Amino acid sequence: MLRKITVAFDLDGTLIAVDSAQVWLDLLVEQNISGAKKAHQVCSQIMQSYGAGTMDMAEYMPAWLQPLNGFDLEQIQPLVKAFIEQVVTGTVYSQGIRKLRWHQQQGHEIVIISASPSLIVRPIAQLLGIENSIGIEVKMQNNTITQLAIPPFSFKQGKVTAIEQWLAALPSTQLDYAYSDSINDLPLLKLAQQGFCVNPDAKLQLCAKDNAWLTYQWHKTE
């Protein structure tokens, strides 16, 4: 049996024009969910170090989860539905969709991998027509959301760990292509046989030149 070509896409800033975790908090604030304003404030402060590559995900996740603590999964489904329909759908990069479809047409094995929580990564991947997705997993207790995230996080070097586990389950020995916008995904791009930089930040743009990675400028769905 021939080995399938494997492809990993980052999500936020790569396939959609927003940070899904942050705009989720925007929605919770709009819906007057208890604790959402405080969570938004704390998470926004922590996010200021994201571009520098020094963000502490272990600090971010408990703050992000605080407004959902104690909810069961069925309770948040209306919020997830509103999030997808009202917030995410209009932020999709049209070129990103075309690239996803091209890889699908070639029969490639695709995964969307994100440092956002899987609670929202999974439905966004479904919106984009992708079955496989990886996000930061949340500890559940009797189907109830807690404030605890499960390490290792799919962030920075953690994305390499997650992709290696995904490859082992296929099975496969290498990641062929990876797409990302962020310097935080440098380990992921270096893992791939070929990296692609989408709307790269300044630091990643320099790395793209050093590694001869192709650069794309993608835009929201027209």
Q: How does this structure look, described?
A:
With 222 residues, the protein is of the alpha/beta class. The chain has a single domain (6-216), classed as Rossmann fold. Helix content is 44%, strand content 19%. It has nine helices and seven strands; from the N terminus they run βαααααβαββαβαβαβ. The chain has helices at residues 20-30, 36-47, 57-65, 73-88, 94-105, 118-127, 157-168, 186-191, 202-211, and strands at 6-10, 109-117, 132-141, 144-150, 177-180, 194-198, 214-216. The protein has a seven-stranded mixed sheet, sandwiched between helices. α1 (20-30) packs across α4 and α2 packs antiparallel against α3 (57-65). The longest helix is centred in the middle third of the chain and has 16 residues, at 73-88. The protein starts with 5 loop residues before the first strand and ends in a 6-residue tail after the last strand. The model has no long low-confidence stretch (mean pLDDT 95).
CATH H-tier superfamily: HAD superfamily/HAD-like
CATH third-level topology: Rossmann fold
Task: Give Rg in angstroms.
Answer: 17 Å
Structural shape: globular
Strand content: 15-25%
Domain count: the total is 1
CATH architecture assignment: 3-Layer(aba) Sandwich
The overall average pLDDT, rounded, is 95
Helix content: 40-55%
Number of helical segments with 4 or more residues: 9
Secondary-structure element string? EHHHHHEHEEHEHEHE
Counted beta strands: 7
Task: Decide which structural class fits the backbone.
Answer: alpha/beta
The biggest sheet amounts to: 7 strands, mixed
Low-confidence stretches: none
Distance between the termini: 40 Å
